[in-house]
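Contributing new records

If you add data, match the layout below exactly. Sequence lines come first and carry their own label; structure lines follow with theirs. Keep one chain per record. Anything else will be rejected by the validation script.
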Amino acid sequence: MSWNSAEFFNQQYTESTSSQFEQYANGNFMTSPFHYNSQINNSNQFYCPNDYIPPIVSSTLDEIENNEPPLLEELGINFEHIFKKTKAVLNPFTTPDYSILDDVDLAGPLVFCLAFAFSLLLLGKIHFGYVYGIVTLGTFGMYTLLNLLTSPDKSCSSIFVTSVLGYCLLPMVFLSFSSCIFHLNGFLGMIIAIIFIFWSSISASKLFATSLAMIGQQLLVAYPCALFYGVFALLTMF
């Protein structure tokens, strides 16, 4: 029996089509790889940019929050250093703590300046501008003088000078509040004012001499400091 190529392919085609018709008749349909209805009804099939963003792990957020420094530390406010520096001002005959020598905290000086101006306000003297003006001029003068006296290896900054002069203003605050109770216009008031001026100048010169390694120059620094705090005493008395 001979077979030609045309009859052979016709027989294969008829067998394949007949088998597909039998499958369709029995309900065995071929599944399509594209499901249009499911894509239309399911919103997850659409493009969502958030799907391509990696999820943020909660532990990572907790680590970031724990590693952040406190707000007061970011602002440069250290209550321990404020307490130690205030203690050094109140007792100028002791050696100050070495951890506060290079501290440039301005929170304490700002509070003391405001307290001094407020005490003058209780006396009916509105001298807020005078207080900040004297502090600015005094800081500039002491900054120039200290840079001339110290070695180039121990140069000081203007913020450091402002911090020390502002902290040592605390005895002047006590003097100003005491003037609300006692009259300091007489001879006794002048003696009390000189004691407080001596107190502030010794405290400031002690901090300057210890921080800048000014050996044997504390009394030399104490004289301009006494002139500086003497102006605040005059504001209190008159």
